Each structure stands twice: as structure tokens, then as C-alpha cells.
């Protein structure tokens, strides 16, 4: 009888131990689940915060531009950037966006259910992951170097020991390509803004990415139309003076000649303006209007030094290009070539290349803006610009404005 009782006791004890082990296993699994879920929640919360930060800044930048429908534009941009920057942590999480036009702020918040795994064994209640960011419009700065192409890789490229400098103004790269801006030289400005991404080094300050796309800042400017040809394939190699007119097939100035331009508009149609071999092209209140395949080519110690018109449709512009011109032409300065244009260079359908030891506006104290389809500065080339319009009678540079924003929460 006593033997049977002992056996029964031992059996009961084993059952108790099994129950204890089962309970301990649940606790161990639950504790492990809590650790696993906590680490995952921390990563997701950080991703949501990064997304909220990016969305708030992008929305505040858009708010700073103002204009029709600015509140909805700011919300749309904040939502889009917040969605793009989630990093897959909580794909599809929808932000809440609020815009305060009076305070100049955009707030982006997330509040999403926390997904549980083994921690659900111990905790049945719901948990949420939250993130909040508020950004404020911090000010505006005028852009003076602007690469207009919306999709090109290397839309603005600094190569070798090249120098690109925006004095008291900003550089804007409109391309959405992931490598829209590249540099191995020096690019310095008050602000560097790129719609897509950038690579390389030598930037001061570091570029801001995910800037909003901006349309042609001079789209409203009227480009004067040319009349019939007054010159055809003109070539000059002696000192002379020229008057405004229509130069079909282009103009070649070479042989160390100095050509003095009378004030007015000089139209170049389907041919380049070439200044080479130590020649000089000089003039006050002069604008070059390019149409068809016309371009500017300065090389071999050639130099072009002009001031822009102070009145008329080309006021403030040193170079204007017909918007109907084909894409693909290049205006280039190379081989010790030099230009000084204290007015706007407007080449929306054309690339600008500064190569070798060429220099653009290094000695010009007041300057408006350089706007081109793409811009490349290579070798030891230099390209300088400012946004001081006070001496050229044109306020159009204000059309290219970068809005800065900063996080305040």
C-alpha cells in the first residue's frame, strides 16, 4: 500500500514538473518575442520618423514657393516624400499632413498598429508606432546657376580641378536622376539644391536632395525673333566694327582681330558665333540671340566681353536662345577662352561646356544667372555667377528662387 502511494506521488510530481516546464517555455518564448518585436518596432519607428522628417521638409519647401493651390501642393509633396522615404519598414503607411500658412509650417505624423509576433503570447492589447515632424519655411535664396534638364544624368558636372561658384546665390539642378549632380572639383554656393541625387565631393555646402522640380524660370520672357539675313557665313580676321543684324550661318572672328559691336541685338541663325586664335569681341548693351543650330564657341585665347541691354525685350540678357531650337547643340568655352557676360545666359535647349583653362565671368563683379539644359565644367575650367541684378536693370533672377526649410519638431 505504501509502495503504491510512493509511485503515485512520483507520477504526480513528474506531472507538476511538466506543467512548470510548459509554463516556463511560454514565458521564455514570450520574453524572446518581446525582444524580437521591440528591435523590429525600434527600426520601424526610426524609419517612420525619417519619413516624417523628409515629408515635413519637402512640404515646407513647397509651401515657401506660394502661389495658387499652395496648401494642396504642400500636402501632396509631403505625402509623396514621406511615402518614398519609409524604406519598406511599413510599406503603405499613410501620413497625416497639416499645413499652417500663417506659421509657415508643415507637420507630418504617422500612427500605425505595431505588428506582433511571439510577444502576442503574453500581451493581447494593441500597440501603436508613432512619429511626428514639423518643418518651417526658413527663408529664400536666389539661384544663379541652373541646369534645366529634368531627367539627364550628370546634368551638372564638375570634373578634374574645375571650379563652379555661385556668389551669394544658389545652384539648382532640376534633374530627377539619381546621379543628376556629380563633382570631383569644387562647387561652392550659398545653397546647392538637386531634385534627384548626387555623387562625389568638393561641395560647399553639401547638396540638398529631393528638391521640388522647377519649370523654366524665364518661360515668360519673350525671345526676340530675327528677320531676314543681313550677313551669311561672315568671317573676320582684322580689326573692325559690326552693327546689329541677322548673321546666318554664324560669325567667325579669328587672327587676333578685335571686333567692336554697336549696341543692339545680334541674331545668329543656324551657325555658331566663333571667337578664336586670340581674337576679341567687345560691346556694350549687346545681346546675342541664337536660333536653329546656332551656338557660342570661344577657344584658343579668344574672348567675348559685353554688357547686356538695359531696355527692350532682351533687357538684362547677354545670350537668349529660341525655345524652338533643337536639343543637342553645345555652347563651349575651351583652350584659354574667356567670356565676361554681366547678364543672363539663357540656353534652355543647349548644353554649356567650360573646359581646359577656360573661364567664365571670373572678373565680372555683378552677374545675373546662367540657365542651360545641362552644364559641364572640366579640366581647370572656371564658371562664376552672382545674382546681383542692380546694374543690369533686370529683376528676372528673382524667378529662380530656392526655399529653405528646417525641422522645428
Structure explained in plain terms:
The protein has helices spanning 2-65, 70-84; strands spanning 96-100, 105-113, 128-147, 156-158, 163-167, 170-173, 181-183, 186-188, 191-194, 198-200, 203-204, 231-236, 240-242, 245-253, 258-261, 264-269, 273-275, 280-283, 286-291, 296-298, 303-306, 317-321, 330-333, 338-340, 344-354, 359-360, 370-377, 382-386, 401-407. The protein has two domains: 2-126; 141-404, no CATH class. It is 19% helix and 38% strand. The protein is of the alpha/beta class. The termini are far apart. A hairpin with a 4-residue loop joins strand 1 (96-100) and strand 2. It is built from two helices and 29 strands. Mean pLDDT is 82; it is low at 394-399.
- Helical percentage: 10-25%
List the strand order in the largest sheet. Answer: 11-8-5-28-26-24-21-18-15-13
Going by helix content, strand content and strand pairing, the class is: alpha/beta
Characterize the quaternary organization of these chains.
single chain
Tally the structural domains: 2
Largest sheet: 10 strands, parallel
Q: What integer is the average pLDDT?
A: 82
- Radius of gyration, in angstroms, nearest whole number: 32 Å
The percent range for strand residues is 35-45%
Tally of separate helices: 2
Q: What is the distance, rounded to the nearest whole angstrom, between the alpha carbons of the first and last residues?
A: 78 Å
Low-pLDDT segments, ≥5 res: 394-399
Shape, principal axes of CA atoms: elongated
Please report the total strand number as a whole number.
Answer: 29
Amino acid at each position: 500500500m505504501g509502495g503504491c502511494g510512493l509511485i503515485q506521488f512520483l507520477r504526480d510530481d513528474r506531472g507538476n514538473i511538466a506543467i512548470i516546464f510548459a509554463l516556463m517555455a511560454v514565458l521564455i518564448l514570450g520574453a524572446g518575442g518581446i525582444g524580437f518585436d521591440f528591435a523590429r518596432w525600434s527600426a520601424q519607428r526610426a524609419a517612420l520618423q525619417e519619413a516624417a522628417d523628409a515629408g515635413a521638409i519637402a512640404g515646407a519647401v513647397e509651401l515657401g514657393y506660394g502661389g495658387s493651390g499652395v496648401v494642396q501642393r504642400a500636402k501632396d509633396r509631403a505625402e509623396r516624400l514621406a511615402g518614398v522615404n519609409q524604406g519598406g519598414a511599413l510599406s503603405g503607411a499613410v501620413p497625416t499632413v497639416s499645413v499652417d500658412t500663417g506659421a509657415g509650417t508643415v507637420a507630418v505624423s504617422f500612427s500605425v498598429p505595431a505588428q506582433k509576433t511571439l510577444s502576442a503570447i503574453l500581451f493581447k492589447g494593441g500597440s501603436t508606432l508613432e512619429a511626428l515632424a514639423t518643418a518651417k519655411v526658413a527663408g529664400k535664396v536666389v539661384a544663379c546657376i541652373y541646369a534645366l534638364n529634368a531627367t539627364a544624368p550628370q546634368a551638372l558636372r564638375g570634373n578634374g580641378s574645375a571650379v563652379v561658384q555661385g556668389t551669394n546665390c544658389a545652384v539648382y539642378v532640376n534633374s530627377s536622376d539619381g546621379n543628376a549632380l556629380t563633382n570631383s572639383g569644387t562647387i561652392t554656393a550659398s545653397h546647392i539644391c538637386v531634385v534627384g541625387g548626387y555623387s562625389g565631393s568638393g561641395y560647399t555646402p553639401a547638396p540638398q536632395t529631393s528638391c521640388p522640380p522647377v519649370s523654366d524660370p524665364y518661360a515668360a520672357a519673350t525671345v526676340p525673333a530675327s528677320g531676314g539675313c543681313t550677313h551669311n557665313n561672315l568671317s573676320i580676321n582684322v580689326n573692325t566694327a559690326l552693327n546689329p543684324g541677322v548673321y546666318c550661318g554664324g560669325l567667325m572672328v579669328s587672327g587676333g582681330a578685335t571686333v567692336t559691336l554697336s549696341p543692339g541685338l545680334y541674331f545668329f541663325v543656324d551657325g555658331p558665333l566663333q571667337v578664336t586664335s586670340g581674337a576679341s569681341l567687345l560691346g556694350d548693351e549687346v545681346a546675342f540671340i541664337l536660333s536653329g543650330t546656332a551656338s557660342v564657341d570661344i577657344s584658343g585665347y579668344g574672348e567675348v566681353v559685353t554688357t547686356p541691354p538695359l531696355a527692350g525685350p532682351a533687357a538684362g540678357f547677354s545670350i537668349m536662345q529660341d525655345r524652338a531650337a533643337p536639343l543637342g547643340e553645345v555652347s563651349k568655352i575651351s583652350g584659354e577662352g574667356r567670356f565676361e557676360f554681366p547678364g543672363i545666359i539663357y540656353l534652355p535647349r543647349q548644353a554649356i561646356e567650360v573646359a581646359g583653362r577656360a573661364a567664365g565671368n571670373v572678373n565680372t563683379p555683378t552677374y545675373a544667372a546662367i540657365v542651360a539644359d545641362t552644364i559641364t565644367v572640366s579640366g581647370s575650367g572656371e564658371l562664376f555667377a552672382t545674382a546681383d541684378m542692380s546694374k543690369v536693370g533686370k529683376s528676372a533672377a528673382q524667378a529662380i528662387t530656392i526655399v529653405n526649410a528646417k525641422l522645428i519638431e
